[in-house]
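Possible regression after last week's pipeline update?

I re-ran a chain I had predicted before the update to compare outputs. Posting the input and the new output here so someone can diff against the archived version. Not blocking, just want to make sure nothing changed silently.
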Amino acid sequence: MKIHDWHTGPYPARVRIAVAEKGLHSQVTFVSVNLRKGEHKRPEFLAKNYSGTLPVLELEDGTFIAECTAITEYLDSLVGSPTLTGTTPREKGVIHMMSRRAELEVLDAISVYFHHATPGLGPDVELYQNPDWGLRQRDRALRGMRYFDEVLRRQPFVAGEAFSMADISLIGGLIFAELVKLPVPAECDALEAWYARMQERPSVRNRLTLSDPAEAPV
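New output (post-update):
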């Protein structure tokens, strides 16, 4: 398998974490797509993913799977029992719901803030910006952080008692927050404590080294 991504990207981080959690790093080759040079918007990449977004999973039969949730679900079904997407109908539903909330309320909101209210990827890539919309989405992300802080005061993981795709989605959001220097609200100590625990997981701590198989976590 090939994964087309950019090693520091918050969305690619989600798939890299899933790869490590499932122990699939030896089966994956990472192909770098330079975001700052706009390589993800060029025709040769758009042929792989119409949306022009990263990451993209390329299978040996030539199939391309985009969207982090879809890629994670595929990877989770490859080896062993699904551990990231749930095993029962209830688990699957709750995990999908909370993962989607992490996307909408934190990760995607920060993405809009980055692309519209900051220099983003630079003038060669950011051809249209709406700063007011970006700032509104920044505020939405902060509200989302407060929501997840409340959730994590009641339970150890985003979707309940076990690490899942929902945690991975929220981790991606907080990685993005760090990149754009958007601090977590000071009162969100449960969220901060959860994130500190997540950073201790080898899959999160070593995600950048997956580009080099010799340095991949075991």
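Follow-up from reviewer: compared with the archived run. The chain has two domains: 2-83+203-215, 89-201. Marking as no regression found.
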